[in-house]
Design brief:
By secondary structure, the protein is α+β, with helices and mostly antiparallel strands. The strands form twelve sheets. Strands 22, 23, 24, 25, 26, 27, 28, 29, 30, 31 and 32 form an eleven-stranded mixed beta sheet that branches. Strands 41, 44, 46, 49, 50, 52, 54, 56 and 57 form a nine-stranded mixed beta sheet that branches. Strand 2 and strand 3 form a beta hairpin. The longest helix has 45 residues.
Length: 1434
């Protein structure tokens, strides 16, 4: 049962009384909120409940019409609650439940009945519900106004009996004063009833007279994580769906179906009722509406469907009953088709939302010549409407377009329209497939795109074939007599609500049901008035639910067209609008350069800590520019197995190009990075202290050393710089992991992100290669790096004209604008230490490098010994005897629980003993003690008694142990035998890399077997493709036999292999993991950590994160379902290499769609540009399965792009994921791995003019505590904030933050705005300011020529005349502050006067041309005029 069917069946309601519907027209509905708090009093103390157990109470709400003695709507039931009894107070049951409902019956007789029900259990275990009383809530007063009741103190009175007493015929209004109702003493219900206007927003989702609880999920409403859903209901986003090419097929044919229908109707009516006339089908309607399982979201649309044969002739006919003995159904035109397109604008992507389609026939009396219906129906002829069939379609939430075939339903069953439906054929002899066809089917095509407007061509149905998708896994087999499904004719016009009313709608009304319809007058005198009435109705508009009827708009010439093979739209070469950004590789122009000797001397003189090796000697310095000859065997044979990796952050230097951006230069910074599989490091904030030129060993003027900051905010007096240590020794590394760590250092590039410690904005990123930290047999090495800190500025996606999209190469890729923000001075060292084992451990050999796993090698898991053994490894077949309770925890728990029961019983007995009994026992013990002292006989008897009790206790324990051993014996023996055939293998895998190995499987039997391979983890799979197997064998240089067509897949896709007696085959396995656990994190500031010097633990506080080992079981099952071998694979996850990192800032709760251009692969060996096959095809995989990524082959010589679609989270969330890129189709080893960070920020859109100040405000919402905050921006020259400094953000308060934006250049730009707690350095809020800037109109243009190079610059003057008659003040601005300065930034001038503006042009460093804009703004900083000065330096 689907979600829609489940909700529909559970929420069936009883309709209101028929007299109420007839005499009281529907009015506007009124919403209520009813809070049920508690019930107290004698109603909870029924005597019949004393003899029952598990007694709980429940409240039930029902609608009741007192005037007609009728219950209606749906009964709501609360959760069961226990009764609480407090001495001195009446018994109470606390509910605290809120109920919401709405009703349009605003009559004083409409009440809400509250019933108190006790649910209990009899002694025989059966459940019983007992009514404990009921109360009456009046919803409307005598003036039909909604009531508001707050019954907290007195409460609502309860009556004896059940609500069925209200059905008594002698019970009249007012109900409370009726003598047949008896009020209960001291019994009340504490509740609140009041109107709730907020519920009006979900009237269309919740049917009236249906109470719902506050936590009930309503399809179409957004669910909140906590709180009341209906206090401020929120709606889900609606989408528009289009239904077209709709056709209805009835069994066995349309003509025979309607003939049988008319015969049955005439027999029901009787000959006397028709007076010799016949019934005819006047119109066939289809009601289409969206239903959420509870009700129709909007009134269903009504469209007219016509037989296809009549539509092709361009007219609508009617089928009347004729007694023809030899009539054969025609195979042509046997479908009812719709000639328009249906728009469903209220659809919601929810499993409970469905489209309900109901077929309705309109019948009338045929009285034309020879019993035929005239072409135009009389407006005075009454008609009959009957529901014939209905269907419901539950689309998939993510569906976009498909062809749908639905079986029609009928007969006596519940349907959303709550009408009687024509019977279905008897299905006693039919199969399930035939049943769906016998009731009829409905076909249509649905889509979510308004551009998908398909027009089918009309052609004889015998020449047209159509493929219909199966209704289920087993497609139905149609009857031989059923006609083929012809293609539908669809009008080229689109109507969202129907173009108007049909002729029959003018004559048919829902209330015009007559038992004896009069004869219809003959003749065509009503043709003109009917056409005029139709025209008037069509001109009045298209109300919701109108009938779509397109007879007047269609003609034969416009419909009958030649069938074309181009019905299917062909995909054109399309370039995405989101233009690609370039994936930058390592910067070749400015690689990391080593420091000069003078620089090293200055660094040493600054007081940085000196590193010493294990012999207390200075560490050897290495130049990073020297080539490195990596020898892995030398590293593995190193005696100093303990590697102490030290990172020293020394200084940060501003580049000369960035010297003017003094406002953006940070005062404090901190770093984030992750080394190997240690946890992510967030360093403390470090102060940038400028080296004075007058110092003893100064840097260049823009260098700053890093100094640690104490907790009180002062600078540390110790050594400058910041140092981190990682201790990687054999005790930390797992067996075989040392080789992985060596390759990590040789191949990995460590990326370090540099952050502003005050604004928490990203300064940039630096990358350092770790290969120079390999010691290669040396005791210790140290290397100094000068790393460029680069920030990437991604241009916003430019808009593309429609004509350029289809043009080849029309969209030019916009690259990444890389800006060097500074240089980081980093020292990287590796100091070797001998490893001293703290405890004696058995030496284990390193794992074998062979890719072949033997089933009976030294890795076998069976070691003999006891059935119950704690030790994983034994020595031979020797096992030391141990107590069973020490070996088996379950047995120990059983014995311990029995001792606890005995102890608890003794304590309970001694606790309840009286003082007199204790005194008597003490006397008895003293007497026996004295008697035992008098002779040895009593002593022996006491000793014998004690031994007897111990013997009995031991005997009971032995019986428990024996029973337990017998129970687990079979399981233990099976477990031991499975160990004998179990082989263990360990893999060291990293993200995206395929680990290949072969398992030597041997058939131990003397008969052949077909072995099924079962794996409990999908990341480990059997390679069944011989081409893939050959690829991995060549890649790993594995020399074993390879067989073609070795496996065959079973029904459940488990591979099987055939084994001859005593035969050994190699089974290829591949382990590859793409999914990584990525928890979305919130951005935080630097960690204030205290690093004490001289700690014995060098790795504190950076301790390695324990990687979780995966255990995978592979069972090789023989034909008798018994295992012949078991392989247990242990997967140790290893860190992967990151080749490049991308960091995107995007608006929260939106999709990031990016196209990233891959690097040029022609640089790879053997790849030829423009030659087919020379350039490899790219494949991509993502670590997050919820992220869509793909790449397309664009052709030889063309660049390739990676397309990403990522769902962003709430601000300030950071989502991290990885992307692996492959060049081989088997995805063996990734060529590159990219790391992505997606920062979700609150979006603010601004449309502004360059040079003009645009103001706006942001609302700041306080947290639970008072904070001292400050706003920081990434572009302080263009975005100003007010207040500018530190201000107080009150707790849970609201405050405005004023922004002033003055852009310097036209186009689209992103500016980042952070609100930071200055005391705790925490990010409070973050915004992404999206600016769309346009350039103002230039009123005047000037041109000057200046000499390039150094100099004093040049002074010029221009004049400006005030065009206004009054005195005005003006302000001057420019877009190039580095090239132009004003003599005065503002001036005041009278009306019509002229003012001379003094300009000073700064000297340029080189020749060229520059365009400088001069903005003249008024007193409100709005642009009055703009001058353009073209400066030529030559």
């Amino acid at each position: 049962m689907g979600e829609w069917q489940r909700i529909f069946v559970q929420n069936l309601t009883v309709p209101q009384h028929s007299q109420r519907r007839r005499h009281f027209p529907p009015r506007e509905s009124t919403a209520f909120q009813c809070v049920l708090k508690s019930v107290e009093g004698n109603a909870l103390k029924l005597k019949v409940l004393d003899e029952m157990s598990d007694v709980e109470f429940q409240l039930r709400l029902s609608f009741f019409d007192v005037a007609y003695h009728h219950f209606f709507g749906k009964t709501w039931r609360s959760a069961t609650r226990p009764r609480k009894a407090v001495p001195g107070h009446p018994p109470t049951v606390v509910f605290h439940e809120t109920v919401y409902f709405h009703t349009s019956l605003d009559h004083p007789s409409i009440v809400m009945v509250v019933e108190v029900v006790a649910t209990a259990r009899r002694r025989d275990g059966t459940q019983l519900d007992i009514s404990c009383g009921f109360g009456i809530l009046h919803l409307f007063n005598s003036k039909s106004e909604p009531t508001s009741l707050i019954l907290n103190d007195k409460g609502l009175s309860l009556y004896h009996g059940t609500p069925r007493a209200l059905l008594h015929p002698l019970l009249h209004e007012p109900t409370e004063k009726n003598k047949y109702l008896m009020m209960m003493d001291s019994s009340h219900l504490q509740c609140i009833l009041e109107p709730h206007p907020s519920l009006e927003a979900v009237y269309h989702l919740l049917p009236e007279n249906t109470p719902v609880s506050s936590l009930q999920r309503i399809p179409g409403m957004l669910a909140v994580h906590e709180g009341d859903l209906f206090q401020k209901p929120r709606l889900m986003k609606t989408v528009t769906w289009y239904l077209e090419k709709l056709s209805i097929h009835l069994y066995p044919s349309l003509e025979r179906f309607e003939e049988e229908l008319l015969e049955l109707l005439m027999s029901d009516q009787g000959n006397s009722a028709l007076d010799g006339n016949t019934l005819a089908v006047q119109e066939r309607r289809l009601h289409v509406g969206v239903h959420n399982g509870l009700c129709f979201v909007q009134p269903p649309q009504v469209v007219v469907v016509v037989p296809e044969s009549e539509m092709a002739r361009g007219r609508t006919g009617s089928l009347h009953r004729k007694h023809r003995a030899n009539t054969k159904p025609s195979s042509e035109g046997q479908a009812l088709v719709l000639r328009s397109r249906i728009h469903l604008t209220e659809m919601v992507r929810h499993p409970a939302f469905g489209v309900v389609l109901q077929l309705e026939y309109v019948f009338s009396v045929a009285s034309g010549p020879d019993g035929k219906t005239p072409s135009v129906t009389s407006l005075t002829t009454p008609a009959y409407m009957h529901s014939i069939r209905w269907a419901v379609w539950n689309p998939l939430p993510d569906a976009t377009s498909s062809h749908v075939v639905l079986p029609l339903q009928g007969g006596a069953q519940h349907n959303p329209n709550h009408t009687l439906v024509y019977k279905t054929p008897p299905a006693t002899m039919s199969s399930e497939e035939v049943k769906q066809v016998e009731s009829g089917t409905i076909h249509f095509h649905f889509s979510t795109s308004s551009n998908e407007q398909l027009v089918a061509a009309a052609k004889p149905s015998s020449n047209i074939k159509e493929e219909t998708p199966p209704l289920s896994k087993n497609p139905p087999v149609p009857s031989p007599s059923s006609p083929p499904s012809p293609k539908m004719l669809v009008s080229t016009q689109d109507y969202s609500q129907g173009p108007g009313l049909s002729i029959s709608q003018l004559s048919v009304s829902p209330g015009s049901h007559s038992s004896k319809p009069p004869l219809q007058p003959s003749g065509g005198a009503l043709l003109s008035q009917s056409s005029e009435a139709l025209r008037q109705v069509q001109e009045q508009g298209n109300p919701r639910g109108a009938i779509t009827h397109l007879e007047s708009d269609l003609s034969y010439s416009s419909l009958v067209q030649e069938s074309s093979s181009a019905d299917q739209l062909q995909e054109l070469p399309f370039t995405p609008v989101h233009v690609p950004i370039m994936a930058l590789g390592p910067r070749k122009g400015s690689p990391s350069t080593g420091l000069t000797r003078a620089s090293l001397a200055r660094l040493q003189a600054s007081g940085f800590p000196e590193l010493l090796d294990c012999n207390k000697e200075p560490v050897q310095m290495v130049d990073p520019s020297d080539p490195l000859n990596f020898n892995p065997q030398r590293e593995e044979a190193d005696l100093l197995q303990n590697n102490e990796i030290i990172l020293q952050f020394l200084a940060f230097t501003r580049t000369a190009e960035d010297s003017t951006a003094s406002e953006m230069w940070p005062k404090t910074i901190y770093f984030t990075f992750q080394f190997y599989r240690f946890p992510l490091v967030i360093t403390p904030r470090l102060q940038l202290v400028k080296v004075e030129p007058s110092g003893t060993a100064p840097f260049v003027s823009s260098s700053h050393i890093l100094v640690q900051i104490k907790e009180d905010g002062t600078l540390s007096c110790g050594s400058p710089g910041f140092q981190l240590k990682y201790m990687v020794d054999p005790g930390f590394l797992k067996p075989g992991e040392r080789r992985c760590f060596i390759h990590y250092l040789a191949e990995h590039t460590l990326q370090i992100d540099v952050w502003d410690g005050d604004s928490l904005l990203l300064v940039g990123s630096a990358a350092v290669k770790l290969k120079h930290s390999l010691r290669q047999g040396r005791p210790a090495i140290q290397v100094h790096h000068e790393l460029e800190v680069v920030t990437m500025e991604y241009k916003q996606d430019a808009t593309v004209m429609t004509g350029e999209v289809l043009k080849h190469g029309g969209v030019k890729p916009i690259g990444v604008h890389a800006v060097v923000r500074g240089r980081l001075h980093l020292s990287l060292a590796n100091i070797g230490h001998p490893w001293e084992q703290k405890q004696r451990k058995p030496l284990s050999l390193p794992p074998s490098r062979s890719r072949i796993v033997l089933s009976h090698g030294g890795t076998s898991g069976f070691h003999g010994g006891s059935l119950l053994s704690l030790s994983a490894h034994g020595v031979g077949n020797v096992c030391q005897a141990q107590k069973l309770a020490d070996v088996d925890s379950e047995l120990a728990a059983m014995l311990f629980s029995r001792l606890q029961e005995v102890s608890a019983a003794f304590q309970h007995t001694s606790h309840e003993a009286s003082i007199t009994r204790r005194r008597k026992l003490e006397r008895m013990l003293s007497v026996r003690r004295r008697e035992s002292q008098e002779g040895d006989t009593g002593k022996k008897a006491s000793l014998i008694m004690g031994r007897h009790e111990d013997r009995i206790r031991h005997s009971r324990d032995l019986q428990i142990i024996e029973a337990y051993r017998e129970r687990i014996k079979a399981e233990s023996i099976t477990s031991m035998l499975s160990k004998a055939i179990t082989t263990r293998h360990t893999l060291y895998a990293s993200f995206g890399t395929a680990e290949f190995f072969e398992f030597a499987l041997k058939n131990p039997y003397s008969v052949q077997h077909t072995v099924t391979i079962e794996i409990d983890n999908p990341e480990l799979s059997v390679i069944v493709d011989a081409r893939e197997w050959r690829h991995f064998k060549e890649l790993t240089q594995t020399v074993t036999p390879l067989e073609e067509d070795m496996f065959h897949l079973h029904d459940n896709l488990m591979p099987r292999v055939y084994l001859r007696p005593k035969e050994t085959v190699h089974i290829p396995f591949k382990y590859q993991a793409f999914c990584l656990e990525h928890a979305a994190t919130m951005q935080q500031g630097a960690m204030e950590l205290a690093f004490s010097e001289g700690k014995e633990e060098p790795t504190a506080p950076w301790k390695a994160s324990s990687t979780q080992t995966k255990h995978i079981k592979v069972s090789f099952m023989a034909s008798d379902s018994k295992p012949i071998a078991i392989l247990r694979v242990n997967v140790e996850s290893q860190p992967h290499v990151v080749d490049q990192t991308f960091r995107f800032y995007h608006p929260e709760l939106t999709f990031l769609k990016k196209s990233i251009r891959l690097p040029p692969w022609h640089t790879l060996p053997g790849a030829l540009v423009g030659v087919p096959g020379g350039e490899p095809e790219m494949f991509v995989r993502c670590s997050d399965p919820n992220i869509i990524c793909e790449t397309k082959k664009m052709g030889p010589g063309e660049p390739q792009d990676v397309f990403l679609k990522v769902a962003g989270g709430p601000s300030p969330q950071i989502k991290r994921f990885f992307l692996s890129i492959y060049t081989d189709p088997w995805l063996a080893t990734p060529t590159q791995i990219w790391q992505f960070y997606l920062h979700s920020l609150q979006r603010v859109d601004i449309s502004c003019v360059t040079g003009q100040l645009t103001r706006l405000s942001l609302v700041l919402r306080g947290t639970q505590a008072i904070r001292k905050v400050k706003a920081y921006t990434s572009h302080p020259q263009e975005l100003k904030v007010d207040p500018e400094g530190i201000f107080i953000l009150p707790a849970n308060g609201v405050q405005d933050l004023h922004l002033g934006v003055r852009p310097q250049s036209a186009g689209s730009q992103f500016i980042y705005l952070n609100l930071v707690d200055v005391e705790y350095h925490q990010l409070v809020s973050s915004w992404l300011v999206c600016m769309s800037c346009r350039q103002p109109l230039i009123s005047k243009a000037f041109e000057i020529v200046l000499p390039p190079g150094g100099g004093k610059g040049s002074n010029k003057r221009i004049t400006y005349t005030n065009p206004y008659p009054s005195r005005r003040i003006y302000f001057l601005h420019t877009n190039r502050l580095d090239l132009l300065q004003f003599k005065e930034d503002s001036f005041e001038i009278g009306g019509g006067e002229t003012y001379t503006i003094g300009l000073r042009f700064a000297p340029s460093q080189g020749a060229g041309e520059e365009e400088i804009l001069i903005y003249i703004n008024d007193h409100e900083d709005k642009n009055e005029e703009t001058f353009c000065v073209k400066v030529t330096y030559q």
